[in-house]
Amino acid sequence: MDILETSFRGVYTDREGNIYTRNAVPGTEVYGEKLVNSNGIEYRQWIVKRSKLGAYLTKNPSVFPFSETSCVLYLGAATGTTCSHLSDICSSGKIFAVEFSPRVFRELLILAERRRNIFPILEDARYPNRYMHIVPPVDVVFQDISQRDQVSIFLRNVKTYLRKDGTGMLSLKARCIDFAKDPHEIYAETRKELESVCKVIEVKDLSPLEKDHAMFYIKV
């Protein structure tokens, strides 16, 4: 199989348009994804239906802020599906993965044992000061949290941890904010709230892969 480079560092594709990352732990899959070999290099398929960031990559984005050395604060890491692909991409960087659920966190710990650039943190992202002794200033804040106050959680962490000229990505679930309101109205309100603190560079509706979700890309 031919695996081809994309315009985004560390992200690859095949001739059918599937997305891959180069496997940092060859021979090991994380969540049932396919492993493929191309020219002696092993790649992991990024199942975009299982990842908001993967869904974002199918929307022809103009920006993708992750590099080999990126330091990332990931809020709402869950079991680490997306974190594992960032681990592949940011191979010489660090991913500080915050998760609130102890049950889910156990699986994240197992993942971090194999991938040493993932640093799991069992904590509530509503209180960013609680992990200041662990997390340094970061290049990227990425959030995937399904709570009504998800925007304020994101902004608190951006203000606390994001470096000057850093970037943030907020995966917004509209139905968690207001189930009855039109999602596009919520997206407009969210953009206005974010722009009171930072510059919104891009907004991508993630439907149909992620219904009633949008990805906001910001810079400070």
CATH topology of the largest domain: Rossmann fold
What's the number of domains? Answer: 2
What is the total tally of β strands?
A: 12
Question: How many strands, which pairing sense, and closed or not: the largest β-sheet?
Answer: 7 strands, mixed
* Main sheet strand line-up: 8-7-6-9-10-12-11
Number of helices: 6
Listing every helix as H and every strand as E from the N terminus to the C terminus, the arrangement reads: EEEEEHEHEHEEHEHHEE
Overall SS class = alpha/beta
Strand content: 25-35%
What distance lies between the first and last C-alpha atoms, to the nearest angstrom?
Answer: 41 Å
* Overall mean confidence score, pLDDT: 96
Q: What is the H level of CATH, i.e. the homologous superfamily of the largest domain? A: Vaccinia Virus protein VP39
Global outline: globular
| Rg from alpha-carbon coordinates | 17 Å
| CATH domain class name of the largest domain | Alpha Beta
Helix content: 25-40%
Q: Label the CATH architecture of the largest domain.
A: 3-Layer(aba) Sandwich
Taking pLDDT < 50 over at least 5 consecutive residues as the criterion, the unreliable ranges are none
What report would you give on this structure?
The chain has 220 residues and is α/β, with parallel strands linked by helices. It has 2 domains: 4-48, Phosphorylase Kinase, domain 1; 52-219, 3-Layer(aba) Sandwich (Rossmann fold). The chain contains 6 helices and 12 strands. A 7-stranded mixed sheet has the order 8-7-6-9-10-12-11, sandwiched between helices. The N and C termini lie far apart (41 Å). The model has no long low-confidence stretch (mean pLDDT 96).
